[in-house]
UniProtKB/TrEMBL annotation, chains A, B:
InterPro entries recorded: DhaK_1, DhaK_dom, Dihydroxyacetone_Kinase
Domain (DhaK) ranges: 7-331
Keywords from the UniProt entry: Glycerol metabolism, Kinase, Pyruvate, Transferase
Catalytic reaction list: dihydroxyacetone + phosphoenolpyruvate = dihydroxyacetone phosphate + pyruvate
Subunit comment: Homodimer. The dihydroxyacetone kinase complex is composed of a homodimer of DhaM, a homodimer of DhaK and the subunit DhaL.
Name of the protein in its database record: phosphoenolpyruvate--glycerone phosphotransferase
GO cellular component labels: cytosol
Annotated metabolic or biological route of this protein: Polyol metabolism; glycerol degradation
EC nos: 2.7.1.121
Enzyme class per UniProt: transferase
Automatic annotation (TrEMBL), chains C, D:
Descriptive protein name: Phosphoenolpyruvate-dihydroxyacetone phosphotransferase, ADP-binding subunit DhaL
SUPFAM superfamilies named in the record: DhaL-like (SSF101473)
GO molecular function: glycerone kinase activity; phosphoenolpyruvate-glycerone phosphotransferase activity
EC assignment: 2.7.1.121
Recorded GO CC terms: cytosol
Amino acid sequence: MKKLINSVDNVVSEALLGMEAAHPDRLRIDHANRVVLRKDGPVSGKVGLVSGGGSGHEPMHGGFVGMGMLDAACAGEVFTSPVPDQIMAATHAVDGGAGVLHIVKNYTGDVMNFEMAAEMAAAERGIRVEAVVVDDDVAVTDSLYTAGRRGVGTTVLLEKIVGAAAEAGRDLDALTEIATRISGQGRSMGLALTSCTVPAAGKPTFELADDEMELGIGIHGEPGRERLPMASAAQAAQMLVEPVLADLDFTGSPVICFVNGMGGTPLLEQYLMYGEIAKVLQAEGVTVARSLVGSYITSLEMAGLSLTLLKADEDMLTLWDAPVNTPGLRWGC
Amino acid sequence: MKKLINSVDNVVSEALLGMEAAHPDRLRIDHANRVVLRKDGPVSGKVGLVSGGGSGHEPMHGGFVGMGMLDAACAGEVFTSPVPDQIMAATHAVDGGAGVLHIVKNYTGDVMNFEMAAEMAAAERGIRVEAVVVDDDVAVTDSLYTAGRRGVGTTVLLEKIVGAAAEAGRDLDALTEIATRISGQGRSMGLALTSCTVPAAGKPTFELADDEMELGIGIHGEPGRERLPMASAAQAAQMLVEPVLADLDFTGSPVICFVNGMGGTPLLEQYLMYGEIAKVLQAEGVTVARSLVGSYITSLEMAGLSLTLLKADEDMLTLWDAPVNTPGLRWGC
Amino acid sequence: MELTKAQAWMADFAATISQNAALLTDLDRQIGDADHGSNMNRGMQAVIALDRDFPDAASYLKKAGMTLVSTVGGASGPLYGTFLLRFAGALTGQTTHDAHGMARAWRAGLEGVISRGKAGPGDKTMVDALQPAVEAMEAETSDLAICLTSGLAAGEQGRDATTPMVARKGRASYLGERSAGHQDPGATSIVLLLEAAARTLA
Amino acid sequence: MELTKAQAWMADFAATISQNAALLTDLDRQIGDADHGSNMNRGMQAVIALDRDFPDAASYLKKAGMTLVSTVGGASGPLYGTFLLRFAGALTGQTTHDAHGMARAWRAGLEGVISRGKAGPGDKTMVDALQPAVEAMEAETSDLAICLTSGLAAGEQGRDATTPMVARKGRASYLGERSAGHQDPGATSIVLLLEAAARTLA
Ligand SMILES: Nc1ncnc2c1ncn2[C@@H]1O[C@H](COP(=O)(O)OP(=O)(O)O)[C@@H](O)[C@H]1O
Ligand SMILES: Nc1ncnc2c1ncn2[C@@H]1O[C@H](COP(=O)(O)OP(=O)(O)O)[C@@H](O)[C@H]1O
Ligand SMILES: [Mg+2]
Ligand SMILES: [Mg+2]
Ligand SMILES: [Mg+2]
Ligand SMILES: [Mg+2]
């Protein structure tokens, strides 16, 4: 394992020190609790948006803290959900009197830790907390009897859109409603060319031969659903688009198309893949109204790509276009 | 070699198709000449800024085309400078009547191809063309008798600042002057943990063992000056800062500090390294006025990091803060 | 249960986890995200770093549970934390320290895990080791040592039985059929907890 | 020089480059950026795809030079392009096709390379193969075939001599001392050009 770190135990806390040093104008960091906070928060009268999860997905979530997006992000250990103490600290810190929305990716650990934190925050301080659980990964077979789908790329789009809605002064019920709707209308699919190495583990989570790829991966370096021979970009685009469209009808409304690099795939390939994906979508009658290309929800240095489609409406598009000022996503200001 | 491509011959042209599909609002692409153009260009009365170089450094340069930065970027083959035809096409396309500035990184190929293009553009159309050659890499021993230093990270800062100055209506002489000054006041140093694979070559340019790193690398996957045992983040920060400060005195004026991922190094490590570098700079009495952290001038999927310091002044800082709207760098609008 | 026994149990478990952290992480690498060993180790190191001054075993184990909740994260933090919190709750007010009480405490812990994680038998989780262990303890309440060793033996069997299962809960469920053929990490660490108990609590 | 000879030269060079592209790229991987083979191959494929209809060798080679400038990029594009442009320029108006004229054309090409790239002998570039080759041709003007084969032999020696050199021009110069011990890719491709010439131009 080769990483630019000092010790496997301090990766997250030292990265947070660097983040604070790099963005003193926009971020404030509660180092004891490992919570990234909006510098100008809590914003009085605004619903506080709290997300978080394991580290190793940067810029998500800490890089999405700021005006028009999150109020706080809790940084867990690498690929390990944060603990309730962190989430409670974040919830208290962002409470502007209008309640707090937790944005949770659907992993057993994340869901349980956020649940415990919400129970405690409500009991201890009477803060009204709602939660939305994002579960958009079509690679996972969903059923009543399983843990359900993983939360992946839709999370980024949701944090942006709901962040804009919160900034616009919508209340907790309205935000919970639109967040739930976004989670229901987003679908993702990913593939990997390499695995990645969790610092504490010291070696790659799985091994792929030079002529293999892994289809249906999540964002924790975990193996996917299927190991396949390495495909061309055109074939790979098909493999990503097809299961997404098979799961939800994306025709008939504007779509936000998000092509995401997993961390180790250069932008050159991401753009090439965007072109291939756009071709397939056009042929399938999907109207892309907005797009996002880049490494926004990553698995450390994993090489690979994910596709997220969100069935949007005019309201969501307006919120998508609204100003956002975070280290990871910025426009309009 | 595992890459999300269709064929090694079409990587660049297909990536440009994807780029156009992803940014139809901001970019226009001359596919025959592989030139990325500002959608609303040429801007009449404004000096046109043209850069370019080998592909594989994305988002540089194509991702820096747009309001407040470049007017055009010429995309060469991967790690191969563009040809004069492309540069001429770009020069003609961006000419708004106020002349054109070529921003060239100091590589033999880039310098010669831009020179030939400038000669031809002047001869054929009478366009006034000036050039600035960026040569900021302190890893390279400089002498009258060699090709001189490579152009690396300072290029990004220069394109942003001079882009803002051009947008503000400064004339070609003023832009050439400030560009030359920036080039003289920027210094960079890089290190790599892995090499990268040029698609047409099919295998990594060099091999590094699991306990080795390469100090003093450029941006073309080429080996560096020294192979060293893998170091901690704190040591690596020293190795980057020290030769930069030894080459130019950065105390006494505000500094822009740019910590750049080479492509395969996750943001988590980049932030961690930013923190380490900030500590060393503070101890050395360097005042960081602005900072930039991210993968902006890359070597495909190379894992590694570079540090660029630019000795700025108030004018440069104001230009740095000015609005910019490109796929790769955006703020203020 | 005496405070010193509870502390010996946690100390033993912490040492065992530390020795087996690489193994647990390795199991988790195969069907999860390669962190179960480091998660549990981080938590148990925090537990043994606790002050040793507690009025009784129940308050100590409650604090240990809270410590796991606060330091582990992931799925195992809330689950192991809830286990100990409920286990401690069942000890509160118990005056005799016999096999009956022991089985009751483990049962309470198991129910906490189930109510928090919603996993049932056969879902390929720690429940598959914990539930048969608790049932075996409940069937052997004549002697505390025998109670614990039969719990351990049943837990080991339960752990082994997870190997062919297709996971329906936790991260391994994302793998679908591919999760079969790998032993569940959480079931494996539960057996370490049972081993430590058999060594220290009788 | 007859048009057909010039075209045979370029065709032979293109084939040789294509056969040796991997070798050239490999040399460039060691002290450069692993593209000299693909650069030259891209350019020469474009040259042989040119229309075959030209008034004379000079206008054909001029077009070939422009084609290299327009398709190769990097350092070798302008350098090889300038070489052929100047070579063609020296042929213009030449009526006899002898060794004198041949040497004069190569000299003109060499001077183009030097004025474009500013490299001198010992800088570990293509000049280190090209310059001795031109000098050897100039010393053997009695017979065209002998002129070309002695140029080739001197070029080979010049190429071999680049191995111990420390580069002062081109990308390899960034490596400083570490560039020593590797043969220069551009000097290597110049020898392929000389080989093709010896086979086709006599
Ligand atoms: N819903 C659940 N109920 C019971 N145990 C579970 C559940 N989900 C996961 N587990 C257990 O947790 C273990 C994984 O723990 P760990 O790796 O520390 O957390 P994470 O999965 O968040 O990385 C699994 O091996 C399994 O035994
Ligand atoms: N200034 C120069 N003068 C002459 N030849 C040069 C010069 N710089 C580089 N070369 C030659 O060009 C070769 C490299 O060509 P190539 O790899 O195609 O271009 P690049 O270096 O731009 O990748 C070198 O091996 C060297 O022989
Ligand atoms: Mg985990
Ligand atoms: Mg090159
Ligand atoms: Mg795990
Ligand atoms: Mg080269």
